[in-house]
Amino acid sequence: MTTPPPVRIDYFSDLLCVWAYAAQIRLDELEQHYTAAIDIHQHFIPVFGCTQRSIADVWKEKGGFPGYSAHVKQIARRFPHVTVHPEIWTRNIPPTSASAHLFLKSVQLLQRKGLIDAAPQDRLQGRSVFEAVVWALRKAFFRDLENIAERAVHLAIAERHALPIAALVRLLDDGQAMALLCKDLQLQDKYKVSGSPTYVLNEGRQMLYGNVGYKVIAANVEELVHQPGEQASWC
Hints:
The protein has 9 helices and 4 strands. It has 235 residues and is α+β, with helices and mostly antiparallel strands.
């Protein structure tokens, strides 16, 4: 019997999104449980492409950055597995998430080109190098209050994960990372993804957006793993 191809899952998030930070544990569990049965493609979208606009202006009547800080800390209290810095969004505020997303596209390209290992690593708690770098950036902002818009922060994380710095910077400078980031934006438009985090399954026929529980995510994946999308389903 022929083994069916893995189910493709497109996962869209913004590094500065607290919901995606808290939901990382679900993404990890999904990947560890289904392993070769699924193929997760991570994409990054600029929900916080301009934090002045998305927070200071939108939250102007609710306290601006301090009001949003209180909101984020209130959300984080619901998820004891994550830590949020007490001064989040009130000090060392990144002006954008886009530069960190661009850095991650460069790391993804290193993986595609075979310059870093794509397999899960025991030393990285079962994550691939790319996945470990994504998590390191999320923690750098939410837990450690680092400005993850800065190139210096990106390169420090790259060094800690033993990435080939010269090759990484080349991909940033020659436009290849930017092209891949633009492809993420095109996919966001194609699937009409409105926010972070969002799972897109079955070529856009199924979409799970926001604070969705693991059992709901797993149920959707389970149906596709055992009942491929091109076949008729009772669900």
